[in-house]
Design brief:
seven-stranded mixed sheet, 16 strands, zinc, RNase_Z/BN, endonuclease, alpha/beta, Ribonuclease Z
């Protein structure tokens, strides 16, 4: 699991930061999943080493423009390129109305099948490897945070030990690798877990934006390997955060601390902290680290590999 930040600014883009978008690369499935799609995201794809042809799922947190204005352009370009097999798009209730209006008024036709899923709290997608769930956040419009949870996998199968026990290769090995019980022709019962190494614990990624500090973010983030959380404002601008229902650097750190995550990555920064201003982004990082030391600051095109526990 690898995260690539395609946009880390809030509200409007700057010279060095585009608006919100994060890609999750799943190499084992040759898939990309996208979280939010601010204006210009398709250009950010072209500037990265990501392959838009691998894009399969898009998860939208809420309907503010800096999180959705790039969606229609990206979907239309995928259709013109003709290299996307299908697309599943997840988001709040107004997402379907928005996209259908864009399609109707721009007379755009997608050359690939797509489906729009209206999300509700709980599991929004699940396959044999991953589970994606969402939880409401606290913002000016309906907003959701997302958690991607990789499922635990059995440890490495010991082929040599299986051979020593006289177990013939073939379908039985597949059952043993899954940790199942098998019965051999001579009546012996073998538990697959005994022939596998330690369980490979699944990794987890949580994305929370836009929101002020809320218990929903804490609940969603419990024990996550990586929490990406908005940090629009500095602590001294907390009143702005309360007024606009955004987070400060310290609020993001408090979520990480309360949820006992392993790594916090800040994103969604206000342009007011650009170089040359009295307060700069490094100050926000210092504030967050005072509460949660294992904090880093995202920038456009930063890639972060989520290591196995």
């Amino acid at each position: 699991m690898q995260i690539t930040f395609l946009g880390t600014s809030s509200g409007v883009p700057t010279r060095s930061r585009n608006v919100s978008a994060i890609a999750l690369r799943l190499p084992q499935q040759s898939e990309l999943w996208l979280f939010d799609c601010g204006e210009g995201t398709q250009h950010q794809f072209q500037r990265s080493d990501l392959k838009v042809s691998q894009l399969r799922r898009i998860f939208v947190t809420h309907m503010h423009g800096d999180h959705v204005f790039g969606l229609m352009g990206l979907l239309a370009s995928c259709g013109l390129a003709g290299n996307v097999e299908h697309m599943d798009i997840y988001g709040p209730p107004k997402l379907q109305d928005y996209l259908q209006s864009c399609i109707r008024y721009s007379q755009t036709h997608f050359s690939y099948p797509y489906k729009i899923h209206t999300v509700e709290p709980g599991i929004v997608y699940e396959d044999s490897r991953y589970r994606v769930s969402c939880h409401p956040l606290k913002h000016r419009v309906p907003a959701f945070g997302y958690r991607v949870q990789e499922k635990d996998r059995p440890g490495k199968f010991n082929v040599e030990r299986a051979k020593a026990l006289g177990i013939p290769s073939g379908p039985l090995y597949g059952k043993l690798k899954k940790g199942e019980w098998i019965t051999l022709p001579d009546g012996r019962k073998i538990h697959g877990a005994k022939l596998c190494g330690p369980t490979q614990v699944g990794r987890s990624f949580v994305y929370c934006t836009d929101t002020i500090f809320c218990e929903g973010a804490v609940e969603l983030s419990q024990g996550a390997d990586l929490l990406v959380h908005e940090s629009t404002f500095a602590h001294q601008d907390a009143q702005l955060a309360y007024d606009r229902l955004h987070s400060t650097s310290t609020m993001a750190a408090q979520v990480a601390l309360a949820a006992r995550v392993k790594q916090l990555m800040l994103t969604h920064f206000s342009p007011r902290y650009a170089p040359g201003n009295a307060l700069q982004l490094d100050d926000l990082l210092v504030e967050a680290r005072a509460i949660f030391p294992n904090t880093e600051m995202a920038h456009d095109f930063l890639s972060y590999e989520i290591a196995r526990p």
